[in-house]
Specification:
Elements lengths: L1 H20 L8 E5 L5 H10 L3 E4 L2 H10 L6 E4 L8 H7 L2 E5 L2 H10 L7 E7 L15 H9 L4 E8 L7 H17 L7 E3 L6 H6 L4 E4 L1 H4 L6
Parallel strand pairs: 1-2, 1-8, 2-3, 3-4, 4-5, 5-6, 6-7
Helix pairs in contact: 4-5
Keywords: Pyridoxal phosphate
Family: Belongs to the pyridoxal phosphate-binding protein YggS/PROSC family.
Cofactor: pyridoxal 5'-phosphate
């Protein structure tokens, strides 16, 4: 528990520090604890320390942990690749989806979101570095996808998510986030208020360029071990 507490406090401190340097209001950046490959018991420890938002990449693993943690008031985020045959389970069991990169997936999530649940919050994944190995819509395609997705009834389009090509230089880390943030601002859509930017290695750069959610795994949980 002590190691978890120390890591959690350190990450929260880093977020507060970066937010202050950026001149942004305290509390404007949400920490998403990336809990893929981590057991439910680890999630429970972080929950008791005050963490409420958890992000998962693998659907079946996530569903198992959601059953084990049903008594906890967790906000669940799906951040992994989305196959069409998995959209129903995602639509039924998550509060946020960060990895929507095509209209077909958004349509299926909208059609399959249960009526008794609030609209599903989604972010559009943008391939900001134009890497062939990564999913995501291009910057030039983004306005058209925003327009098409925005009118779907059972989802709420909230913003964008990006995983740029890794860089060690702080100025270079900032550049792709700045391009994407500015592109979204130019769309003039106030409802696009969420920017799922940044991980442990580029957290400061992401927050400087407008991140409202940062995705952190190893820095919180320690090295991966499989359940």
């Amino acid at each position: 528990m002590q190691n978890f507490a120390e890591r959690f406090q350190q990450v929260c401190s880093q977020i507060r520090h970066a937010t202050g340097i950026a001149g942004r209001p305290r509390g404007c950046v949400q920490l998403l604890a990336v809990s893929k490959t981590k057991p439910a018991s680890d999630i429970a420890i972080l929950y008791r320390l005050g963490q409420r938002h958890f992000a998962e990449n693998y659907l079946q693993e996530a569903l198992q942990k959601q059953l084990q943690l049903a008594a906890f008031n967790i906000t669940w985020h799906f951040i992994g690749p989305i196959q069409s045959n998995k959209t129903k389970s995602i639509a039924c069991h998550f509060d946020w989806v960060h990895s929507v990169d095509r209209l077909k997936v958004a349509q299926r999530l909208s059609e399959q979101r249960p009526e008794h649940l609030p609209p599903l919050n989604i972010c559009l994944q943008v391939n900001i570095s134009e890497e062939t190995s990564k999913s995501g819509v291009s910057l030039t395609e983004l306005p058209q996808l925003v327009e098409a997705v925005n009118g779907l009834p059972r989802i709420r389009l909230r913003g964008v998510m990006a995983i740029p090509e890794p860089e060690t230089s702080y100025p270079k880390q900032r550049q792709p986030y700045r391009r994407l943030y500015q592109a979204v601002q130019q769309l003039n859509r106030p409802e696009l208020d969420s920017f799922s930017f940044g991980m442990s290695g580029d957290l400061k750069a992401a927050i400087m360029e407008g991140a409202t959610m940062v995705r952190v795994g190893t820095a919180l949980f320690g090295e991966r071990h499989y359940i």
